[in-house]
Fold:
Amino acid sequence: MNFQFIIIVTLLFLVLAGAIILFLFFYQNRVYKHKNQLQKMQEEYTKEMLQAQVEVQEQVLNAVGQEIHDNLGQMLSVIKINLIKLGKMVPNGNGETGLIEEIKTQVSGVLNDMRNLSKTLSQDFVSDFGLEKSLEIELNRIDKTGFIKTALNVYGEPFKFDGKVEIVLFRVCQELITNALKHSEANKLGVELDYSADKLVMTVKDDGRGFNRSRLAGRSPEMSGRGLINMENRVKIIGGVLNLESEEGRGTKATIVIKPSARPAHIT
Amino acid sequence: MKFSYIAGLSVLIPFLAGIFKWSSLNFTLRLLIFYLFFILLKESYCVALAMNGVNNLNIYNIARIVTYLFYFYVYFREYDRILDKRIAIAFGILTTIIYFIDLLYINGLWKLNFYLTTTGGILVIITVALYFYQLARKLEYTNLSAVPMFWFSSGLLFYYSGTIILFSFFNEYMLMHKKANFPLWDINSILLILLNLLTTTALLLSSKKPK
Structure:
C-alpha cells in the first residue's frame, strides 16, 4: 500500500474542494459587482430621465404661460377696449349700458385671473417671489375660484433653497393642489411650511374623500398612481422625500421633507 | 487519549454552539442539533469500545447510513428546484440499497462498509456541489460568509473529498495488518475537526430566518 499516493490524492481532492469554494466566493463577488454596476447605470438613467422631464415640464409651462400672457391676454384686452368703445356708442340711460359694464367687469376679472395663472406657470415667478410668496399667490388664485377654501401656514424661520429646488417644490405642490381640486371633493385645503434648523416639512392636506393607493392600479394613467410616483421621483431628485397618507373618507395628507443642504443634481 | 478519540468527540463543540444559539436556529439547523447529539452518543460509545479493544465498526456502519440519509434530507429541504429535491431522494434510496447489499452480501457488520462509505461520500460531494450550484445560480447577491449552510456544506465538501481515498484503503490495510491503527487515520481526524469547526461556524452565524 502506497501511503504517499493516498496522501497526494487526498491533498489533490482537498485542493479541488478548496478551489470550488473559492470559485463560488469569487463568482458571487463578480455577480455582485456586475449587478451593482447595472443598478447604478439604471439609477443614473432614471435620474437623467427625470431631470429631462422636469426641464421639459418647466419649458412647456413657461411657453404656456407666455402664450396666455401674450396671446389670450392681448385678445381679451382688445375685447375690453372694444367694449369701452361700444359703451360710448350706446346712448346713456339705455338698458344695454348696464350689460356692457357687466361684461367689461367680467372680462377684467378673466384677464386678471389669466395674468395670475400666466405668472404661476412661469419659472421666473418662483425665482422672483420665493416659495412662500408663490404659494400664497397660487392659493389666493385658487381661493378666488370659490371651489375650495385654502390656507397657507408658515412656521419657523424660513430659509431659501436653491432656485431649482424651490421650482420643483412649487410644481409638486401645484400638482398636489390640482389633484385635490380634481379628485378629492374637498372643502378645505391647507398648505403648511414648517421650517426647522435641519429641514423643511411641507404639508398639503385636504378634507376630501381620500383614496386607497392600492386600488389605484389598473385605472386610467392619470388615476393609476403613476402621477404620484412621478411626484415622488421628482422630490427624490432634489434630495427630498414625499410621503402620502390617505384613507377613504378621511382626506389626504402629503408631506415633503427636505434638508436645507438639498441641491439639484444637474437640473438646468 | 488518542488524537482520533479527541477528533471524534470534537462534535461536542458544534453541539454546544447549537444549544447556545437554539432560539435563532431554523428547522434544518435544529434538526442538525439532534443529529449532532446522536453522533456525540455514538462517538462516546465507540471511544469507550475502542479503549477496551472492542471492534466498533458495526456502530460506525449504522451511524454512517444514518449520517448519509440525514445529509440527503437536509439538502432535500434546502434545495429550491424540484429536480434537485428528486436527486436528493434518489441518492437516499440508492445509498440505502448499497448499505444493505454491503451489509448482507459483501463486508458484513464487523468490517467497514467500503461500498457504502465510498458511494455515500461521492453522493454527498455531488449533493453539496448541487447546493453550491444553487447558490451560484441565484440572481440576487448572497453574502456567502453569512449563510450558515454554506459553512456546513464547505465542511462536508472538505471532509468527504479528503477521506474518500482514505477509506478506500482502510479494509485492505486491516486485512493485511489485522489491526485498526491505520497510520493515515490522523488525516480523517484533522478533517473531522475541521468539519466540526465549520459546523460550529454555521450554527453561530445563524440568525432567526426560518426557511
Chain B has one domain: 3-205. The mean pLDDT of chain B is 86. DSSP finds nine helices and no strands in chain B.
